[in-house]
Specification:
The chain contains twelve helices and ten strands. By secondary structure, the chain is α/β, with parallel strands linked by helices. The two termini are 24 Å apart. The protein is globular and about 50 Å long. Helix content is 46%, strand content 16%. The model has no long low-confidence stretch (mean pLDDT 94). Strands 4-3-1-2-9-10 form a six-stranded parallel sheet, sandwiched between helices. Strands 6-5-7-8 form a four-stranded parallel sheet, with helices on both faces.
């Protein structure tokens, strides 16, 4: 494929559900000319409580689907899948790939002052200790304190973004991190930026929140630039710049997506991901 047409290909982004839309939103802001194909595995969400083998198998199926869409790069916009499946899939696929863990870990290591970094994430991401591994490579003396917050994902998926229930759960989960004296907190699940205001309120202004979605979009821009894959011009009006696919509940997904993006998500296609 010649260089020009390769630039025109879309970026593939996938997540266990709607959380990865926070990554898509940042990619739209940072590299607005790019086309995006998004897949949300809404039939099998959440990933955070599932085994490494299962999450890897799901991720492999999704990558095979994205390959049929001829994507030029793939972003695993899910911390659990980044922790469990990224290394394995990189061995199988020639397309440039990026997870959300490394960019978030790098930023946290750079911005912390007292070296105490908190990570909130799903059980899978916390058990993998992947943030700690990366951060300690960059900052040996750093102390990383992880806390699984499994109820945040269903709360976000239900649209309870600013709600007394979410406030109450956040207080319970985060109290242990407040007591530990961290000055930096990684939102280690792509759903969590959607309740960022609640988390910041509970943690207090002295704690810096790191949003890996934002850092990942910047990293993706660098990667595409290095490989000469950045899109030169915005797609022609009328072309479908952003396409959304799910494994279940297309209407619910579309409704949720429209609360995140300023413009309307016109269509969401449901596919049978088990066929891939």
């Amino acid at each position: 494929m010649e260089e020009k047409s390769k630039k025109d290909l879309p970026i593939g982004v996938f997540d266990s559900g709607v959380g990865g839309l926070t990554v898509v939103r940042e990619i739209m802001r940072q590299i607005p000319k790019e086309r995006i194909v998004y897949f949300g595995d809404t039939a099998r969400v959440p990933y955070g409580s599932k085994s490494k083998e299962t999450v890897t198998r799901y991720s492999e199926q999704i990558v095979r689907f994205l390959e049929t869409q001829q994507v030029k790069a793939i972003v695993i916009a899910c911390n659990t899948a980044s922790a469990y499946a990224l290394e394995e899939i990189e061995k199988q696929v020639k397309i440039p790939m990026l997870g959300v863990v490394k960019p978030g870990a790098k930023t946290a290591a750079e911005v912390t002052v007292n070296g105490k970094i908190g990570v909130i994430a799903t059980e899978g991401t916390i058990q993998s200790k992947i943030y700690g591994k990366y951060i300690e490579q960059l900052k040996k003396e750093a102390q990383v304190i992880g806390k699984a917050c499994p109820l945040f994902v269903p709360l976000v998926e239900e649209g309870l973004l600013e709600d007394p229930v979410t406030d109450e759960i956040a207080q319970r989960y985060l109290s242990v991190l407040i007591d530990s004296g961290i000055d930096t907190l990684i939102l280690g699940c792509t759903h969590y930026p959607l309740i960022r205001r609640t988390i910041q309120k509970v943690m207090g202004d002295q704690v810096r929140l790191v949003n890996p979605a934002y850092e990942t979009a910047l990293e993706l821009k660098r990667l595409l630039d290095q490989q000469n894959l950045l899109q030169d011009e915005k797609p022609v009006l009328g072309t479908n710049q952003y396409q959304f696919f799910v494994s279940d509940g297309a209407d619910k997904f579309q409704h949720f997506a429209n609360t995140i993006f300023k413009y309307g998500v016109l269509a969401v296609k449901q596919i049978n991901i088990e066929e891939y």
